Amino acid sequence: MGKVSDLYRQRVAAGKLRPDPAQEAVLPQMDRVLDEMASTPAPKRSAWRAFLGVGNPQSPPGARGLYLWGGVGRGKSMLMDLMAEAAGDISCRRVHFHAFMQDIQAGLEAARKRGEQDTVRPVAEAVARETRLLCFDEMQITDIADAMIVGRLFQVLFDQGVVVVTTSNRVPEDLYKHGLNRQLFLPFIDLIRQRMEVVCLDSQTDYRQNRAAGGQVWFTPANADAKAAIDAIWADLTGSAAPEPCRIEVKGRQVELAACSGRVARSSFWDLCGRPLGPADYLAVADALDVLMIDGVPRLSASNYNEAKRFVTLIDALYEAHVRLIASAADEPEQLYNEGEGSFEFERTASRLREMQDGAWGTRD
């Protein structure tokens, strides 16, 4: 196990990072988490209890976690990568919050089918058996199904000795803001404050905005010229192959994309975001592709809130999988969603869309 601060300084010395006082200010908190974990023995897991389906006894309080919040593009994800790297032999899982909650919901469904009375505990204990340190990127809660179980889920994880470090664009009190039955969610905010140190990354620099622009991949407005430009990119990437529909299996269902050639696909905004698709569907799409082209991203507002929410989830999935995005849209990312419910959350999406335009940002290795 190492120190996050050491890795950070090594990257700065190598010219891979620029020193940032706001980032440097949170490094001691990240080091503290790992130091406290190193001085706290890992909780013992009973194989017999697991075999018999009996919950493990509560572990003594371990290291206090970390909730790192701040504006988009301030380096939170980079710091989370360093945290996971510095963890060394500590069993660590670095995962996007969306993807983690998809796994949890799948586990809850399996527990329900087994007839479990308490579906959350066995799922949480299964996570705890494999992981001591959970590193979440981009904690945000907009789904009521997630909102109603996170308090119980994290309480069991904490009781089992799991330490959580997460990033977010929002202070805890603003999570699930204006959500349905939010009063039932409020104990989770109290739990965050009890078990995690809440720290603001107050950098004045948005590193995503400062990346060098690459070849054009975002075309606005979404007119005939934009269509012709994307047609030309399609021809170049696929050797002018005739597009064929493809179907991606997701939990016994199929998500259809109208135009595919190898790991390149093309779809209209409405085919991807106008249908009732969810995070699992978009994660499967991202896993199946290296390049996705989207035609006709409209202006987003309260009038198409559901479609906008799906678009945000889709971009998260593409971003995490390093899928190259080529799109035509009504406006630049920062101007797509300027007011109304969801506009705050879209700032992160706009920042990611801007970053994904960089020529150095692309498909997975």
TrEMBL record:
It comes from the Bacteria. GO terms for biological process: cell division. Gene3D superfamilies: P-loop containing nucleotide triphosphate hydrolases. Pfam families: AFG1_ATPase. Keywords: ATP-binding, Cell cycle, Cell division, Nucleotide-binding. InterPro entries: ATPase_AFG1-like, P-loop_NTPase. This is Cell division protein ZapE. It comes from Paracoccus rhizosphaerae. The gene is zapE.
